[in-house]
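Subject: for your reference before the review

Hello V.,

The reviewers asked for a structural picture of the protein, and I figured it would be easier to keep everything in one thread rather than splitting it across files. Below is the amino acid sequence we used in the manuscript, unchanged from the supplementary table.
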Amino acid sequence: MTAADAPISDTLTAMPPAQPQLRECGGCGLLQSVPAIGPGMRAQCARCGITLYSVSTHPLDHSIALTLASIVLMAVMCATTLMHVQTAGITLHAGLFSGPEELVRRGMSMLAVVVVFVTVIAPAGKLLGTLYVLLRLHEAAPPHHLRRVFALAEKLRPWSMIEVFILGVFVAYVKLGDLVHITLETGVFALMALTITIIWADAALDRELIWQRLGYHDPESIPLHPARANLAGAVGCETCHLVSLPQGKHACCPRCGSALHVRKPNSVSRTWALIIAAAILYIPANYFPVLTVMQLGAGAPSTILGGVEELLDAHMYPLAALVFFASIVVPVLKLIGLAIMLIAVQTGYAGGLRDRTRLYYVVRWIGRWSMVDIFMESLLGALVRFGAAITIEPGMGAVAFCAVVILTMFAAEIFDPRLMWDAAAARRSLQAQPSAVPAR
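And here is what came back from the structure prediction:
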């Protein structure tokens, strides 16, 4: 029986592509032919070493089960209580939406919207979109709109922060231990299980196999074969990675429908604008209090650095290190790292190109973990409302700090690391040109 005669369910396994693929590296821009690889293997760029794609060892049905389990656990987490606290004969309960509701009461509606989006809307959208695509892939001819749905689910991945949220819950739990009696409820255990299944599902999902199964349909853009001699004008899609020859000024990917660009438009100027704005907001984020603890009518506002000092005074050294790294070190390193890469693009500096490309992917991945402090503060504000006995109020510093995190995440997404390689190549080409000899 040939592959064409095999049942659809048998083809939905993690098998390597039958033929080599043409890929454009998202890190350095090199167009290269990638050979077929087997399950559990990954293909790396020949120039910068960045992973181009990997083949999972799990069938797609395995991903369906994990994604469905994640959706069920997320529903349980949203519908149940995370924890309850008790002091002075008063008991308060907090669920997933209690923190955002408290932020709205404090006049911080935009911060509440961000918290709900990254903890509920983005994860739910990613999970539901992925499950819908995986289920419809079993059809003999998957509908064309699945490409757009899967592309949207993939674009929501950086903004799905369940694994960051659980760290915020842990920090809040530890900080409240000395103030009130706190008990974990069903929602927290569902959150723990959800974190495991989401990470597992993300690692097991064979995205390359899904895109191959979805295929392409736009006749105006021409997908290219590795054996094609002339690759002038070829562009790789930033979403599904298909390399095609776009036709027209506003070309779209023939597979997922995303806009095609040789390089991200106005990448340098837009990234500069975002990191300058983030650097300016970082000042009020550290100057204004992120929360205020009032106990028996006495208390003082606490900044990010002040919170770290309080944890050190309480001998909570691992927690102090976590908050210091996520809230102070990471934002500063992101701003410095992006600034270094932008300067390298504008000067054409060619040293350490591979290292700077790896640095870009580290910066892009690590920035989301700074949201730990925001999640912790929203939970503390919802859990500790005991009138004159003890109250914790989120401060305006948290709004500025959240803006810093979001702006640096956008900056990392907008920056195009391929420009560093382009600029270095242009500078080497200019230096290689023979200097003009003055006429006598």
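For the response letter, the relevant points are probably these. Residues 1-18 have pLDDT under 50 and may be disordered. Residues 196 and 203 are 11 Å apart (CA to CA).

Happy to draft the paragraph if you're swamped.

O.
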